């Protein structure tokens, strides 16, 4: 039987899975096509057992595992997974498709264990911004990416509050990079809800006049519903709702699921999607899917193995999640007016200046600076320098000379002109400053493990010109690709959204040029071949 061309096209196009774009308007998520409010019925997903590359964990690079888990997630009623660690160098096509085919979106943490803003010694530098751009490019071509999380519990006490400034700077620059590449994804932050800094944190990420520096959503990792006889009131959930009522951006439980009593009855899940919370909260992620040493899992699996064992709480969670039916509002009828939020003032308990953020990293500025030095770091393999050892030498140098250009003070809002440079550039600057402090004496170009090389005629004579160099916002990432899927075009350019305006015009897989056009997705490529065949036949 011959099918008409139109019928064949319909059948082919119908086989391609593309989920509707989820956007932010005011303090809620919405489906950009249907206009209905979107609630995150989520679960944390980070299988670790049997991972062949534990130093670069990436469950979305395990097609066997994803094909095993995605249908079970759908069975549970899950519509979004939160994935903490992924490797931008690996391919994710099959995994992402497995979840898309089951109607599941991805919320991705950008940082990894090796590339993150470190709470005790925070920085936002050229190397880290490159790693973050690589992550964006690795996943920006997939239709079912809901958004990105720029930091998870980075500032978790008074002593680590300086890190908040660098997370906010990262959010600003990630959003700037997305905007420059015409991509639309919300970028948020996940907090541990530490009482001593709770109010400052939640205000800090939505305060100020620069919309691009504000988080697009805010997550709370909340573990207070710790027995099965707790209620909305006794668990503290009622208080949390009160604290975030009127918040300017969507609020999620980025983690929840206390295990003080087992098996959990998931009363917190029922509450989260009830009328008690849905006017303020947009859902959340139950922690967690797989059984790991921390004992939070509801299934037992191993990397690359299709076997799956459902644990006692699997059916309990699924029964609860499948029965919830949150009442939302339509985007067309939703009216929102943002509240003016003052940035918290710097104090002994909040060590961040309210008016100044760390500047956007600039590789060109750092290269320019290095080209102005008379003494440069000369290490054949910089990666072999232990970070801790190198930093000790740097601290030793800076104890005797002024290292202001590569230092910062978040309380005062003071950031040196080159504090955003990577370690290699900072070490070079410090060696040069030390060399000059010793009047360029023979043998003084170097310190301990930081070997230096004298430069007789630096190519840059005026260091002040370096500050005028372009930032890395418009610099393509170094990602050589993991995604071959089509980018998500702006599905609703006229809607109000706190994230950057959308529409990708580059391929995240080639990843080496922000001006490159997206290659066809597998379904569209198949369509092209199919059309040629039809023309030949008919």
Q: How many structural units, i.e. domains?
A: 2
Structural class: alpha/beta
Which percent range describes the beta-strand content?
5-15%
Biggest beta-sheet profile: 8 strands, parallel, barrel
The CATH topology of the largest domain is given as TIM Barrel
CATH superfamily annotation of the largest domain? Glycosidases
Organism: Furculomyces boomerangus
Keywords: Disulfide bond, Glycoprotein, GPI-anchor, Lipoprotein, Membrane, Signal, Transferase
Main location: other
Signal peptide: 1-18
SSE arrangement:
Elements: H1 5-14, E1 22-25, E2 28-31, E3 40-44, H2 63-76, E4 80-83, H3 93-101, E5 105-109, H4 126-139, E6 145-152, H5 162-180, E7 187-191, H6 198-204, E8 217-222, H7 237-244, E9 251-256, H8 267-272, E10 281-286, E11 299-300, E12 309-310, H9 312-323, H10 363-370, E13 375-377, H11 387-398, E14 408-409, E15 414-415, H12 423-437, E16 446-447, E17 450-454, H13 522-537
Parallel strand pairs: 3-4, 3-10, 4-5, 5-6, 6-7, 7-8, 8-9, 9-10
Antiparallel strand pairs: 1-2, 11-12, 13-17, 14-15, 16-17
Helix pairs in contact: 1-13, 2-3, 4-5, 11-12
Region (Disordered): 474-516
Biased composition (Low complexity): 474-515
Enzyme class: transferase
